[in-house]
Design goal:
single chain; mainly beta; 6-stranded mixed β-sheet; 51% strand
Length: 137
């Protein structure tokens, strides 16, 4: 059984394997980086460590986050570096058996398919598995 930290983006459930996740936090003030790609939301200071922040809504080419939605941060470790992923809402840690796994659905748009490694069919919903390395590349 695999364990996933889950989060929502535009009412779609995504998950990241627990081993990638360092911590989950409320948003911190971000410092913009001039000339950075639109997916880079800025830099945050986490207890003295400067961490790059990637907005997954922008990365997945979703509509901008509504003004009344305060994003949350999922801090992951990629290549020995911490990276913060901005998401809409944090979910639970869920377990999923191998027999619920399926390849990414054909109905996903090309951008999402490129960033998802597969899906788990859970009770009444689909958990899309985010490829963390591709998402922050």
């Amino acid at each position: 059984m695999s364990q996933y930290v889950t989060f929502d983006l535009e009412d779609t459930l995504y998950g990241v394997e627990v081993g990638w996740v360092q911590e989950v936090l409320r948003p911190h003030s971000r410092t913009r980086i001039p000339r950075s790609p639109a997916t880079v939301s800025g830099l945050v200071n986490l207890r003295g460590q400067v961490v790059l922040t990637v907005d997954l809504r922008t990365r997945l080419e979703l509509a901008p986050r509504p003004e009344d939605v305060e994003p949350m941060m999922v801090v992951v470790q990629v290549g020995g570096e911490s990276v913060s992923l901005l998401v809409d809402r944090i979910g639970d840690v869920v377990g999923a058996d191998d027999d619920t796994y399926a390849p990414p659905p054909d109905t996903l748009d090309a951008t999402t398919r490129a960033l998802v490694t597969g899906a788990h069919k859970l009770d009444g919903q689909l958990l899309l598995l985010l490829d963390v390395e591709r998402a922050v590349a």
